[in-house]
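Worked problem 6 (solution included).
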Amino acid sequence: MTISTRTLGSGSAALTVSALGLGCMGMSDFYGARSDTGSVDEQESLATIRRALDVGVTFLDTADMYGPHTNERLVGRAIAGRRDEIVLATKFGIVRDPDTGARLGVSGRPEYVHAAVEGSLQRLGVDHIDLYYQHRVDPSVPIEETVGAMAELVSEGKVRFIGLSEAGAATIRRAHAVHPVTAVETEYSLWSRDVEAEVLPTLRELGIGLVPYSPLGRGFLTGTITSTDTLGADDFRRVNPRFVGDALDANLAIVDTIQTLARAKHVTPAQLALAWVLAQGDDVVPIPGTRHVARLEENAAAGQIGLTGEELAVLGDLDAATGDRYADMSSVNR
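Solution. The predicted structure is:
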């Protein structure tokens, strides 16, 4: 299996990564997997990360709030002795109680930025982070102050490149004026395309890459979820607006089209959905998450799938998803 590379950012902010990354969040949190030890099935998660590196998926994504903290420790164990093989991305800014996991707020204060990076470096067991994102914009702190602190981390050699997550177009422009932004991470998939309206054109104007998380619609686009009854009791998708009630039924129609086209093409629905995201531009690098080796290999193979103009048109004409992306979007895209 051959995984090609793509470039996020431009000029002095250009970063070469594998064309497909691995989102590690679900190994430790949110999908029925919150664990004080780092993962419900730690050995399978470690094997998945290591297999990703073996097949060329070397762009790994984590965050200090996943767990919280346990996911960074898990990734750190997985990459021990293989640091030179990977491009490591993590995030700061969403503050959670390390004992209960309760969300305490968002912080972009410069002093918090400096403290957060030290914690991430220690948990990951590395001396630098390749791509450091602000996880959510802090509405109480000017973005210029937060990015100024992130720029200091670059000068200190603790961070190579900086990014933002779920930021709006105006915020991205202001941030980029302080220090070149390499990538913006946001949700993007066949059922989450609002980024195409303002954010993606802004990124392309400024030469910033796009890193889509949840490119498989939190697993929904794989066709394996038809009811929340199959999800764990603590799986946050049980209360996600797109997975419940009439919205679920409406969104299953989207999956039906994907499954039909996938069968005709002799690929899986997941591979088809990922191939569509990959086809949106060489500056787009999706990071599907999984904690299973078999799913990792399935996702990685999507990079070998070409889509015809007709197939792209069919997928591009799918109805928008019914329901909000999150139950509460008040802190997103400020």
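Discussion: The longest strand covers residues 159-165.
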